[in-house]
Amino acid sequence: MTFPAPGAVPALFARDLRHGFGGVEVLHGVTLGVGAGEVVAVTGPSGSGKSTLLHLLGGLDTPRDGEVWWAGERVDTLGTQARAGRRAGRVGLVFQHHYLLEDLSVLHNVLVPALLTGQDGAARARTLLARVGLAGRERDLPGVLSGGERQRVAVARALASRPAVVLADEPTGSLDRANAEVVAGLLLDLAREDGAGVLLVTHDERLAARADRALHLLDGRIEEGEAG
Ligand SMILES: Nc1ncnc2c1ncn2[C@@H]1O[C@H](COP(=O)(O)OP(=O)(O)OP(=O)(O)O)[C@@H](O)[C@H]1O
Ligand SMILES: [Mg+2]
């Protein structure tokens, strides 16, 4: 299936997403697009549905209604396995609580997406680890890392398979300000270099100001505003 709109294919596109839990609807029709190389910040009050939205956009959950497209392919209609396969190659995820695999080394954590897509990602993984300041830490287990170091591993992992789309849910939420700026800067720089489209949920206004565009989620609907 090809993307229906004329012009450049967005990295990420969602049309009229509706979703909820039990009898409660949380998202009442969210439409958004993120261009290749574009960074879009999503802000909104606690409970407004930001994480719910990111889960739908990352294909970790299926919307009750609406469409999700990654790099020109509709994916909400795919089966779970097919979608997981597409996700491994096209989507990088960074969450507030960096879910590193504790029994795997730093290097192997970063290599997981490449392994899933059958790429030989070792050189890329080492380069990314060096870029996030963790050269020499490849063999360490996550348990010995600081919070900021763990989050930098999560950033490297998210970018390992050169994804078209990077989804980040409060990627710096558990870090102090200095570390938060370093991690966020790395995420945005690396994603921009690769031409990935980034959607970033954040409560940090300084981080939101570094985006190209800001979307505000209020009462399950998107309001668009200028970043910065
Ligand atoms: N798995 C779930 N089961 C039931 N309700 C849920 C579930 N996930 C989220 N919700 C509800 O959906 C609403 C939106 O939650 P969500 O986590 O998306 O908010 P958020 O904007 O990310 O908030 P925060 O800024 O606090 O992270 C909340 O009322 C929440 O209780
Ligand atoms: Mg949330």
Offer a concise description of the structure.
The protein contains seven helices and ten strands. It is α/β, with parallel strands linked by helices and 228 residues long.
What does this structure look like?
By secondary structure, the chain is of the alpha/beta class. The chain has a single domain, classed as Rossmann fold (3-Layer(aba) Sandwich). Helices cover 33% and strands 26% of the residues. It has helices at 50-57, 80-90, 106-116, 122-131, 147-159, 177-194, 205-209, and strands at 12-21, 24-34, 39-43, 65-70, 73-74, 91-95, 165-169, 197-201, 213-218, 221-225. The strands form two sheets. The chain has a six-stranded mixed sheet with strand order 6-7-8-3-9-10, with helices on both faces. The protein has a four-stranded antiparallel sheet with strand order 2-1-4-5, covered by helices on one side. The longest helix is centred in the last third of the chain and has 18 residues, at 177-194. It is globular. The N and C termini lie far apart (36 Å).
